[in-house]
Write a structure and sequence with these properties.
The chain has helices at about 15-20, 25-55, 60-90, 110-135, 150-160, 175-210. By secondary structure, the chain is mostly helical.
Length: about 210
């Protein structure tokens, strides 16, 4: 048995140019890596703020900050999926087959799988935002709108007292209602994407089975 690897057939100039154009996406993924660094900075900044302000914060305010930290982590996870999965799918192989830290989902990633995973990640991020809005609207005593006179006065009073507690909100009950509707649309869209992917996978499997026989 020969150990010589099969030679890659040379492409004509035009197909080679078109295929090589995929490398134009490389700066986009490098830019997302920079964005990942920005989110790391934001996470550390919010964490230090939580540690420093904990003695002056109530339970619900701490919960809002923690949910904000979780939100940053989930967006960071989404960035990793787009960077790693997108590069692997559309640019070039990462060749991580024997790497001990290879993500489990990367072993069978393709455009359809990546699309479903991204949809589920977006739903998770939307859920965190919706939960933050529910907590903020339902805080004991309620918070005045930041654009109202009461909200401006509350912010000024907190600033003069040297406190870092949340003094006003930009969330309204109508805003929460619209967030809920949009979140529901995200869920329906993700189900539609998953169902379409299942139909396409089933059709492809039937064709392969028919060709095999």
């Amino acid at each position: 048995m020969s150990d010589v690897a099969p030679r890659t057939r040379a492409l004509n100039p035009l197909p080679s140019l078109i295929f090589s154009s995929r490398w134009l996406q490389l700066p986009l993924y490098l830019g997302l890596i920079v964005a990942q660094g920005v989110y790391v900075y934001l996470f550390v900044k919010e964490l230090l703020h939580l540690i420093a302000a904990t003695p002056h914060l109530g339970e619900q305010e701490i919960m809002l900050i923690v949910l904000g930290l979780i939100d940053v982590v989930m967006i960071s996870n989404l960035l990793v999926m787009v960077i790693v999965g997108g590069y692997e799918t559309f640019v070039s192989r990462l060749r991580l087959e024997d790497h001990p830290d290879q993500p489990e989902w990367l072993s069978h990633v393709n455009a359809s799988v990546l699309k479903v995973k991204l949809a589920m990640a977006i739903i998770g991020i939307s859920s965190i935002h919706l939960l933050k809005s529910f907590i903020e609207v339902g805080m004991v005593g309620g918070l005045p709108l930041c654009s109202s006179l009461d909200g401006i006065a509350a912010v000024r009073a907190m600033s003069e007292a040297g406190l870092t507690m949340k003094a006003c909100t930009t969330i309204t009950k109508d805003g929460v209602l619209w967030q809920t509707i949009i979140h529901s649309v995200f869920i329906i869209s993700a189900l539609g994407i998953a169902w379409t992917d299942k139909l396409m996978t089933g059709a492809a499997s039937k064709r392969e089975h028919a060709h095999a026989h």
